[in-house]
Specification:
The complex is a heterodimer of chains A (322) and B (222).
Chain A: H1 8-37, H2 45-82, H3 92-96, H4 102-128, H5 135-161, H6 178-184, H7 191-211, H8 214-241, H9 260-285, H10 290-318
Helix pairs in contact in A: 1-2, 1-5, 2-4, 4-5, 4-9, 7-8, 7-10, 8-9, 8-10, 9-10
Chain B: E1 2-11, E2 19-29, E3 34-38, H1 45-52, E4 60-65, E5 68-69, H2 75-85, E6 86-89, H3 101-107, H4 116-129, H5 145-157, E7 163-167, H6 175-190, E8 194-199, E9 212-217, E10 220-221
Parallel strand pairs in B: 3-8, 3-9, 6-7, 7-8
Antiparallel strand pairs in B: 1-2, 1-4, 4-5, 9-10
Helix pairs in contact in B: 3-5, 4-5
The chains are: A mainly alpha (322), B alpha/beta (222).
């Protein structure tokens, strides 16, 4: 058997994913029953039973959703640890690109987490109301999430069983070198120009969140997520590693860098997802939740604060920028 | 006005030990009235009281209080509704024996986010009505049965609910304490409360302040 599948982290991860999937299947089956017969206005025996059952199903789904959120950083942690057994890999960057499934799997997981966040918000609004107004909508949303989770778990097994342990993989070692950096930046932007755009979009996004502009906040959140990935990888990461040629989005997840990568990426994802979810909620359940804009601004500021802190710290310690 | 429509309660549904406790109950209880539910043990009185008090959900049917359907309230809202609008006096009082009288009564105010002055004011008022203020600092385990019941009544009225529900209130009391209880119920009625009492005690049979007596048998009102 492939050594990757025998690694502790991968066994734990796949076991947890499988367990979540089993619970998801159960919840999916009952969700369909509830969707088919739900009628809150009825006082029939069936409706009372469905309300009772729905309570249990919501509990199961909430458990799986929270477990999914916690499993994302663990997935990255597992990849990072695999770099010890995969030749050529220095961190999770090499493992993610070890086969064609890695990046798709990672992107799908992030995509799923976005819908999980939306589901959790819809669920909390539904439970706070007196008449379960969003019950049907949240179960429809759950069916979508269920199918995404099914694809995700299939990809997980394909991905982990196809990581080569005999041939060397390409890792962040190949992007060491200043000249290669600009080639990876979208539209061949100059790094300085990209950082100016990064701060401008951040300021604009905070302003739009303050103005509670759902559509523009969504657009600029997507843009900020995109530009932040490249800004962190090709600029801010060099200050975290204190090495101008070390440009990697994953090494910062390691102990040597105080696991700062987890805080950095988590604050970016929470900040942008909260802002992006406002329009989804507005269109899907006709609810404006202004609190989400505030949460978004808090996490985006934390994200930008962490990025800026490393640059300033380097400058104050060394008197120069990289 | 409390309106009960086609109310059913089935325990262990679709199992070998299925038990149909309430069968198509239809009932109207007017505001500021005192209603007695009479019947032998197992006739469904306590189950009906628990459903009226939102402590339990029916299997089918509805309960409306002032046009609000309370039988379908989600648990979170049911508990808030209960705290604000319903006072329950349990047969065995359900008090915290190691806490004192004041603490037991104040406990019922915790879900309403009142400040300490409001809590103190409400508890003192309830203790005065229930005539237990002189035992304010006494631990409940040191009280007599009649005193415990007065604490239970004070706890039931501390949030000034419109509806007071009592389950077998005189079952554990002697004659004198039962008479005291009746006086208190009469006083609560003059304060505008709606009172529903489940009992099989004949002491309630011919009271001037009782508006309706319903007899329950085998889960039905007969």
């Amino acid at each position: 058997m492939n050594n990757v599948l025998l690694s502790n982290e991968v066994i734990i991860y796949l076991f947890a994913q499988s367990l979540i999937f089993v619970f998801s299947i159960l919840a999916f089956y009952f969700s369909l029953l509830i969707l088919k017969k739900w009628d809150f206005d009825s006082s029939s025996s069936l409706q009372y039973k469905l309300e009772k059952r729905s309570y249990l199903v919501i509990l199961i789904i909430s458990f799986t959703m929270i477990a999914k959120i916690l499993l994302l950083p663990y997935f990255v942690y597992a990849l990072d640890n695999l770099s010890n057994i995969v030749p050529g890999a220095m961190c999770a960057a090499g493992i993610v690109t070890a086969n064609e499934y890695g990046q798709i799997s990672l992107f799908l997981k992030i995509f799923v987490i976005f819908f999980v966040c939306v589901w959790l918000i819809v669920n909390s609004l539904d439970l706070k109301a007196k008449t379960y107004p969003y019950t049907k909508k949240k179960y429809y949303l759950y069916t979508l999430i269920f199918f995404l989770i099914a694809i995700e778990i299939a990809l997980d097994f394909l991905y982990f069983s196809n990581i080569p342990t005999a041939e060397p993989v390409v890792c962040c070692s190949t992007i060491y070198g200043v000249s290669s950096a600009t080639n990876h930046i979208p539209f061949n932007l100059d790094i300085k120009f990209m950082i100016i755009i990064f701060y401008l979009i951040f300021a604009l996004l905070v302003l739009l969140n303050t103005q509670k502009s759902t559509i523009l906040s969504f657009v600029f959140s997507v843009l900020f997520l995109y530009i932040s990935y490249y800004s962190v990888t090709y600029f801010f990461s060099t200050y975290i590693y204190e090495l101008p040629t070390h440009q990697c989005p994953f090494c910062m997840l390691q102990k040597e860098y105080n696991f700062i990568g987890y805080f950095l990426w988590a604050s970016l994802l929470i900040g942008t997802f909260m802002s992006m979810s406002t329009i989804v909620l507005e269109k899907y359940i006709k609810q404006n939740i202004n609190k989400l804009f505030l949460i978004s601004n808090i996490f985006l500021t934390i994200f930008v604060g962490i990025c800026t802190f490393y640059v300033l710290r380097y400058y104050f310690v060394n008197g120069v920028f990289l | 006005m409390i309106e009960i429509q086609n109310l059913n309660k089935i325990f262990n549904e679709n199992k070998s030990n299925e038990f149909h406790t309430l069968k198509d109950i239809n009932l109207q209880i007017k505001d500021n009235s005192c209603v007695i539910l009479k019947g032998v043990s197992g006739s469904g009185k306590s189950t009906l009281l628990s459903i009226i008090a939102t402590l339990m959900k029916p299997s089918s049917g509805t309960i409306k209080v002032n046009e609000n359907i309370i039988s379908k309230l989600p648990d979170l809202h049911a508990s808030t509704f209960r705290a604000k609008h319903i006072g329950f006096v349990f047969q065995n009082y359900n008090l915290f024996n190691s806490f004192n009288v004041y603490e037991n009564i104040a406990m019922a105010t915790t879900t309403l986010n009142l400040n300490s002055n409001e809590i103190k004011e409400n508890v003192n008022k309830a203790m005065k009505i229930a005539n237990i203020i002189h035992k304010e600092n006494q631990t409940v385990s040191n009280l007599s049965g009649g005193e415990k019941q007065r604490v239970a009544i004070a706890r039931a009225i501390v949030n000034n609910p419109e509806l007071i529900v009592c389950d077998e209130p005189t079952a554990n009391l002697d004659k004198e304490n039962s008479q005291n209880f009746l006086k208190m119920i009469k006083e609560l009625k003059t304060l505008g409360k709606t009172i529903v009492i489940a009992t099989h005690d004949p002491i309630f049979d011919e009271l001037d302040f009782v508006d309706e007596i319903y007899h329950m048998e085998d889960g039905k009102i007969v």
